[in-house]
Automatic annotation (TrEMBL):
Region entry Disordered, spans: 212-244
Superkingdom field: Bacteria
Pfam (any one): DUF559
InterPro entries, per database record: DUF559
Domain DUF559, chain residue ranges per copy: 279-341
Protein name: DUF559 domain-containing protein
Biased composition (Pro residues): 221-236
Length: 352
């Protein structure tokens, strides 16, 4: 039985005992690669599937900027000066790393053009000014894998693929063949979880069950069902790159001086004996937590888990506010006013 940290990259394997997907990347040891999850679906051909995954990886990496080029944090605006600065920084970074300089520079330019927050548009149809350039697929695959790993300070990157019951033999073959291409060209780990009766050339690896506290973590966002390709995991300190709701709230908060001190996607440990939990938005100095609930939070099991999390945080001294995605997207200013009122009251009590 292998640990998650010991699973191979640069290879396609089928996992046995992996447990339910998706899996929170921060529930894994630091030695494990950065992981994206996706669900396998029927594809016309291995080439078409690999191409679709590359496009989604491209959109994901653009959304993670500047996590994979940290010194670019202060470079604002897609104007000439900004583009020249970010290109120079990318080339300098590549000179002392495994990145391919021309590709990283082009990727950084496109990421700066895409700022701020155009990931939903990217997933639908990459706009002309940020569409992938003419680099060969092999160069794109390797460069995107390196950038993804760098964004999370991990040793490499992997796709954790849920293979559903009923995938046709042709679909299984296309999945494995596309995975082999990505593994060999990009060094990605392609980890398949589910039945593959039609393909007998894939090694099966028994893997240790994910840590029990993973159920307390925010899951990796999956893409719309028609794509079947990966969504990005959260990045500590930033709105989730795949969440228009988090980005909308951050946009509404960004001009508010009172909102200083906020931190997105943080891990909290309510007490020394408790498993850590991920919270969407945190004001640590004010002991305030804001959670954003999508439609899945209406289901009984998820609703009960949310209430249990809130109680644990409240006992530890945190105040928890919850808003639905619909509230944030339809009336973000109302949400902001509620948060402001809570923070001002907490600060008045603390200083009073």
């Amino acid at each position: 039985m292998r640990s998650w940290a010991a699973l191979p990259t640069g290879k396609v394997v089928r996992l046995e005992g992996a447990g339910p997907l998706p899996l929170a990347v921060d529930s894994l040891p630091r030695e494990a690669p950065a992981i994206l999850t996706c669900t396998a679906r029927e594809a016309r051909s291995p080439k078409a599937l690999a191409s679709a995954i590359l496009d989604e990886l491209d959109a994901t990496v653009l959304g993670l900027f500047p996590a994979w080029l940290p010194d670019a944090e202060g470079i604002d605006g897609p104007g000439g000066a900004g583009l020249a600065a970010v290109r120079t920084l990318a080339l300098r970074t590549a000179a002392t790393s495994a990145h391919f300089g021309p590709f990283l520079a082009e990727l950084a330019e496109r990421a700066l053009r895409a700022r701020p927050g155009r990931l939903p548009d990217l997933r639908a149809s990459l706009s002309p000014e940020i569409r992938p350039s003419g680099f060969p697929p092999e160069v794109r695959a390797a460069g995107l894998a390196r950038a993804l790993a760098a964004a999370f300070s991990r040793r490499g990157a992997a796709l954790l693929v849920d293979v559903p019951e009923g995938l046709s033999p042709a679909g299984q073959e296309a999945l494995v063949a596309a995975g082999e291409w990505l593994a060999h060209r990009a060094g990605l780990g392609i980890w398949l979880s589910g039945p593959l009766p039609a393909v007998d050339r894939v090694e099966t690896v028994l893997v240790a069950e994910a840590p029990s506290q993973a159920s307390d973590r925010t899951p990796i966002t999956l893409p719309p069902p028609e794509t079947g390709v990966p969504g990005p995991p959260p990045v500590a300190g930033r709105p989730h790159p795949g969440s228009p709701v988090e980005r909308a709230l951050e946009s509404a908060l960004s001009g508010c001086a009172w909102a200083a001190g906020r931190a997105w996607n943080q891990m909290l440990c309510p007490n020394a004996l408790a498993s850590p939990v991920r919270v969407d938005l945190l004001w640590q100095d004010d002991w305030c937590v804001v959670e954003l609930d999508g439609p899945d939070h209406r289901y009984a099991e998820k609703f009960a888990d949310d209430r249990a999390r809130d109680v644990r945080l409240q006992i530890a001294g945190y105040t928890v506010l919850r808003f639905t995605d619909v509230q944030v997207l339809s009336d973000p200013q109302a949400v902001v006013r509620h948060i402001e009122l809570l923070l001002r009251n907490r600060r008045a009590s603390r200083n009073g």
